[in-house]
UniProtKB/TrEMBL annotation:
EC number: 2.6.1.16
Pfam families for the chain: SIS (PF01380)
Name of the molecule in the record: Glutamine--fructose-6-phosphate aminotransferase [isomerizing]
Reactions performed catalytically: D-fructose 6-phosphate + L-glutamine = D-glucosamine 6-phosphate + L-glutamate
Record organism: Candidatus Falkowbacteria bacterium RIFOXYD2_FULL_34_120
InterPro entries with a match to the protein in the record: GlmS/AgaS_SIS, GlmS/FrlB_SIS, SIS_dom, SIS_dom_sf
Stretch forming the signal peptide: none
Length: 360
């Protein structure tokens, strides 16, 4: 791969606008206002019979799986659950035949994912593989394989493959929801918003200098918490993972309200907290937690929606207004940049962190 930037991770973060455009081009027909997944062409009968969905992944792909759970419940109206592939594999499971399994793996070769897919297949359920390698073992095992179209990812930390998993999930939820369940009005708004999403991603790129300055300020921290609720819960987990992987800083992602049940004991003056609080259905509740953290003099980095006037402190990064379901695609890029710049400040090799491989 031709290296245009100093680091692969930065290069791959910046590819996300193009990746999202490619995905949207393949799956959305703006004239008719529908999403269409040809991959299901021969499995439509099975798809229509599905009455629950299980999402599985490892690492970053597991975080995409959580997002999948949430968006499918909202758009497809089916009971959903999400699992770590290794836990699904190693415990006794009760599987109902009309379950659709959706496996995520950027490489399509992660051992636990492959073994879990084989286990699910024994129950004759519909198996979907979402992968960045359409020639992978997962793609061959799955009844329906969907290519995330991110292009080869060479940096260890997944960036463009994560956002591609999210957008594919959003489009897939609109598609399956539209097959026989949700009224088209909901998907219509989503499709209108998808049109402008790549431009909004470009807008996030313009925050690089600000994010770099914040990372500079935080380069000596030893630990931090990353908080988010609902659609930003998986993004908080992903933020924590990205920071750990690239800069070896102990960062943990939490669901914002769950953080109050114990981990909050960590908070003292200057304890660093990254908080995702865009305008969405949980903003008012998040606001109360942020105020509480401010009173306890935590050192906050806030990710909010442009135009937010509730908070005035220094380290606020704004994402453009979007639909609640698409906010994570914008805000995760801020965290990817932060993880990258923090690693850069700490002189870490973020493209090849110690002890890790792209998949195991
Ligand atoms: C781990 C990598 O081993 O595999 C993570 O260190 C990655 O970065 C995880 O998210 C899952 O990989 P894949 O290819 O199954 O998505």
């Amino acid at each position: 791969m031709k290296k245009e930037k100093e680091h692969l991770m930065l290069q791959e973060i910046l590819e996300q606008e193009r990746v999202i455009r490619d995905i949207v081009k393949k799956y959305v027909d703006f004239n008719s206002g529908i999403t269409y997944f040809e991959e299901f062409k021969h499995k439509l009968r099975e798809l229509r019979k599905v009455d629950r969905v299980t999402f599985l992944g490892c690492g970053t792909s597991y975080h995409a799986a959580i997002y999948g759970n949430y968006i499918f419940e909202e758009f497809v109206d089916l009971p959903c659950e999400v699992e770590f592939a290794d836990e699904f594999l190693r415990r006794k499971t009760v599987i109902e035949t009309e379950t659709m399994f959706i496996f995520f793996s950027q490489s399509g070769e992660t051992t636990d994912i492959i073994s879990a897919a084989k286990k699910a297949k024994e129950s004759k359920c519909l198996i979907v593989g979402i992968t960045n390698n359409i020639n992978s073992t997962l793609a061959h095992l799955a009844d329906v394989a969907i290519n995330t179209l991110a292009g080869k990812e060479d940096a260890l930390a997944a960036t463009k493959t994560f956002s591609s998993q999210l957008i594919i999930l959003a489009l897939l939820a609109v598609y399956i929801g539209g097959l026989n369940r949700k009224p088209p009005t909901i998907s219509k708004r989503a499709i209108e918003e998808i049109k402008v999403l790549p431009e909004k991603i470009k807008n996030i790129f313009s925050l690089q200098e600000n994010i770099k300055k914040i990372a500079e300020k935080y380069k000596y921290i030893e630990q931090l918490a990353v908080l988010g609720e609902k659609y930003h819960f998986p993004i908080a987990l992903e933020g924590g993972l990205k920071i750990k992987e690239t800069s070896y800083t102990h960062a943990e992602g939490f669901s914002a309200h769950e953080f109050l049940h114990g981990p909050k004991a960590l908070i003292e003056k200057n304890f660093p907290v990254i908080f995702f609080a865009p305008n969405d259905s949980v903003y008012q509740e998040n606001k109360k937690i942020i105020k509480d953290l401010q009173e306890k003099e935590a050192s906050l980095i806030l990710i909010a929606t442009k135009g937010n006037k509730d908070f005035k402190f220094k380290d606020i990064l704004y994402i453009p207004e979007s639909l609640e379901i698409f906010n994570p695609i914008l805000s995760v890029i801020i965290l990817q940049f932060f993880a990258y710049f923090l690693a850069l400040e700490k002189r870490m090799d973020m493209d090849k962190p110690r002890n890790l491989s792209k998949f195991i």
